[in-house]
Amino acid sequence: MIAYSQQQSDSLGSLLEQRRRLRENSQLESSLRSFFQAAWHVIEPETPLCWSWHYALVSEWLELISSGHFKEIYPDQFGLIINLPPRTSKSSLITIVWPVWAWILYPATRFLCASYSDKLAGDHSIKRRNLITSQWFQERFGSRFRLKDDRNRIDHYDNDKTGYHIATSVGGSGTGFGGDICLGDDLLNAQEAFSEAARDSTNRWIDSTFSTRLNQPGNGRLRSRQSTPCRRRSDGASPRAATGEMGTHKSAARG
Questions:
Q1: What is the separation of C-alpha 210 from the centre of its chain, rounded to a whole number of angstroms?
Q2: What's the predicted TM-score (pTM) here?
Q3: Maximum distance among all alpha carbons in the chain?
Q4: Could you tell me if 183 and 94 are in contact, meaning their C-beta atoms sit under 8 angstroms apart?
Q5: End-to-end alpha carbon distance in the chain
Q6: Separation between Cα atoms, residue 55 and residue 84, nearest integer Å
């Protein structure tokens, strides 16, 4: 039998805790799915997460985009469209958690995030920044990057690795900037989804402005996530998504 002093026991306990934390951090940084589950209590402290298989599936696609492998596997596709029913935590995973997670591995990534209104885009931006500055995140990944004091606004903040998150709206001034990843979340107000004029206006903005904001178009990643696609089929049927086509869904593309 081996006897340990209290000091030795405390040191052993501390070492085991450090090893456990290292294993946990390794899992969180290698898996967006795991990071999303673990970070949920930070972004939604009063709402339990009801897990669904679609979180894992969407996470796999976003991981491909973050690493640049999406363009290697699908060289002819401009980006990714993700359509899911309302209230299924699409924005929480794609627009809030994913850009923060991507910065753990790729802190130099520049995100341009757009929504139909400045208020919605700003709300998403605040939640991203709150996650970054949370004690939970800082204890685990605070050494990977830090937010710069001289560029830390609601709609635009930089990190010290040259990455940034910019929040803008359809037609907003933020689209004067570019992004390695352009992320569109609810680019069309759901109440205007049945307005042909509103759909046409939003699609013109996507085609003529948002889709040209990729920093490296040849390697670009343009993604959109939205509850209501805004393109209609030529036969007048209900809107639907088409792989590689930009619309007012949740969509994203990487440059």
A1: 17
A2: 0.81
A3: 81
A4: yes
A5: 61
A6: 11
Strands 110-115, 181-185: parallel, antiparallel or unpaired by DSSP? parallel
Q: Which two tokens stand for residue 221?
A: 């990643």
CA distances (Å), 25 to each of 16, 42, 49, 92, 141, in order? Answer: 14, 16, 20, 21, 8
Q: How confident is the model at residue 206 (pLDDT cuts 50, 70, 90)?
A: confident
Report CA-CA distances (Å) from 211 to 90, 175, 228: 21, 10, 19
Amino acid at 24: E
- What burial letters (b/e) apply to 156-168, b meaning 16+ CB within 10 Å? ebbbeeebbbbbb
Half-sphere exposure of 228 (CA within 13 A, CB side): 17
Match 């309302």 to its residue by tokens: 86
Spatial separation of the C-alpha atoms in residues 99 and 93, rounded to whole Å: 9
Structure tokens at 34: 């795991």
* 8 Å CB contact between 36 and 97: yes
Domain boundaries along the sequence of the chain: 8-254
Residues 213-245: pLDDT tens digits?
A: 888 765 555 555 444 444 443 344 333 332 332
Token pair recorded at residue 168 = 């803008």
Q: Please state, in angstroms and rounded to a whole number, the distance separating the CA atoms of residues 236 and 67.
A: 38
Residue with tokens 């709402």: 47
Q: What percent of the chain has pLDDT over 70?
A: 78
The answer to whether the CB of 112 falls within 8 A of the CB of 174 is yes
Contact indicator for 92, 37 with CB cutoff of 8 Å: no
Quote the DSSP letter at residue 191.
G
Determine the Cα angle at 174 with ends 219 and 252, to 5°: 35
